[in-house]
Amino acid sequence: MANPVYGKHFKASTEDEKRGSMFWVLNICMILFLLWAPFQIALFNGLGISFEKPLFWAIMLVCILMILGLIQFNKKVQLNDQRDMVALLIILLPLSYMISMFSAASWHYAVNMVLIQWMYAFIFVIGIYLLRDRVSNKIIQITLMGSAYLIVFFGYISWFGQGYLAGHLVWWFSNGVGNGVYIDAIMQDSNGWRLTSVFQYANTYAAFLMAIMFAGLFNASRLRTWYDQLIHGFMLVPVILALILTLSRGGLVVLPFVLLILLLLLRPAQQILWFINLVIAGTATAVILNPVTAIGLQVIAKYDGAVAAKGWAYLLIASLIAGVLIMLVGRYIAPKLEVGVEGWTARRGASLWIPIGSALLGILMLVLLIATNLRNLLPANIRVRFENINFQQSSVLERFTFYRDAMKLLRDYPLFGAGGGAWGASYEAYQNNPYVSRQAHNFFIQYLVEVGVIGFIIFILFVGFIFYKYIRGYFKTDRAGKESHFIYFIIVVSILMHSLLDFNLSYAYMSILVFLGLGGMASAMDLTPLKRLKAPAGMIRGIYVSLIGVVAIIVAFTSLRFSVASGDVMDAQKASQVASPSYEGIRAPLDKALAIRSTFPDAVVFMGSLLTQVLQQTKDEQYYNEDIALLTKTQEKEPFNKNIVKQLVTAYQLGGKSDVAFDLLVNSIPKYKWDIEWYEGVITQAYALGNQAYEKKDTAAQEKYFNAGLNAYKEVEAGVEYLKTLPTGQLQGRAFAVTPTIALNIGKIQLMQGKTADAASTFKLGLADDLNDQTNREVARYYLAALKKDKQNDQAIYDKLIKIDAKEKEQINTIANMDYSGK
Questions:
Q1: Closest to 30 in 3D by CA, of 2, 6, 66, 74
Q2: pLDDT digits over 442-485, tens only?
Q3: Helix 699-723 and helix 658-667: axis angle, to 10°?
């Protein structure tokens, strides 16, 4: 028989006490925040200015919640048990990010991430103390599930072609609405149309849906009122169907393993009930899968109200039937099931058979859908995704590449990491091939490179301790104790497991769910007492509450300032897009932004471009000096920012320091080694400056520039050859090949060095069909001239070029007759 308490020092996790007005204020504010947050593109930390303002607003709101929380439960802060201990230790996570700032790959991203980490810490602390109260716990669980179900139906509004309706529902408070619709609530990629709802990313939506599906199953099996069973049973069909419509292979692969973990913690009767409810909801989903998919694809292409209504009818009727059946199971079968398996429940290891069997069944179904003709029953777009589930597909191979490249980054910043946003800022310097991904597609690896080994160990120990204490207490408590906070365990496990394959926690809303869930788990863990400190309890409480309160105020104020700075930069962008933009109108908001954040990359790049334009017009050296000072200062804080380097190169060139600009281009190659445009810039400048040196008869300078260009060309050739060795199925990413511009300039260098045959071969690499393009035409001209020098010809290219312009014949002869050796 289960011990009805957590242990010797047990105290109920739901500590009810007199609830004053602040209790209700805090709970209402939490409800509003949890309803607001997901519709801000789930607070995606996308390392771009358009994502920053909602994030800073969220941080400010959480700081306010933290202050309200301190007022409400400051007396509960006794620092006399392990729950209070983890509420204190959570500050180690933002502190580890603060330490990593000093070696940050991007100061801007690192500072932002420190603020975000404090937000998570505050959410965790709120969760620990708020969710001890029985009523608060119920309110937050209802809010989480209710908001999740709203998100699900919000996605279907767009799936059934009613994007403008979705936009009109949330435009007044959402940052994600543009041109009257919620942007990318459905997205099209190479796999077809995918359902993304508020996330704008199908895989993260799949992780969210997986968590909500399991939470819905849990609620349908534990709640006893008929309307609770009906509601959660009803919603299982839309959730499962939406999960399929995301076309997320990672979600389908992770799902059986998460199910296995969760089932292991349930009684056999609950396990059977989960299985029955899954079969009911899954069957209803299978029945409507094809028509709902087809209708969605049809109305997305061309909206038809009658067809959309038919799709809604399929969805709602199937959901209602499933909901009623699940309700009937809960009312009539579940009680008998509890009694019927009571003897089995008492057997050792009884709770293992169904989880293992269910997981094996899930894996078997997945294998059948992948490897047999059973997949032909699925809609075409979904069938293709099942067919592509294997370890040789591009997305899998790319992820393994990301992980290997992340380890290269870690080797350079092993102990304390490279700061928040490190991967997004510096991945080009470490990448194996020219992919584009500012996310490492694995939360744990991304966390590791940001805070290093020490910070990562702190995080793992912290989270691991909460899991250990929660699970240990879970098996010692009674049924009510088990069920009171299990929904938080479901959410945390589901999201973290899926985050092994994707960047779900780059969405701050998803991280908020995780840290709120961890707080919920911590509030329910056993109450092992701490040794009483010698200082009076009131003093200890006062110090802790004051510390958290002061930090919350500082973080809130900083976030407000940063939000203003981001808004100023966006105002400058808008000012530049008017019919006749003025220098003062653009510069004023940029000055305001830089007064708040002096090395704000977006503001600096914008200001640099503005100063460059004014310098070209006025030739006033003060603009040059200001530009160089601003860009140089920012580059020290943002060493990997490509746009800063480009702006510096332009500024040096305008200031007559072409040699400095060239050295900066060459020295930056290792940072952008798979950017073919960077090589184009280096090689173009190498020829131009080398040719100038040639005309001045400066042989040393000529050799310097020409050799630099040829060395860059060798790197391009080596890169092209390396890409041929990528595994079959892995896409290389961005184009990386010898371009007409590269071929033209390298060929000219070889021609000037007397390497006529080499020059002809290089020019040939750059030949393109469109000879109306000036660069392509010049490549063909030099190619034919190089051949003529060696008494050869390519008649087909010659005829094609002469047909475009008969004067090309004279230009070919002029080039062919040039003698560089006499200079």
A1: 66
A2: 999 999 999 999 999 999 999 999 999 999 988 888 888 888 89
A3: 30
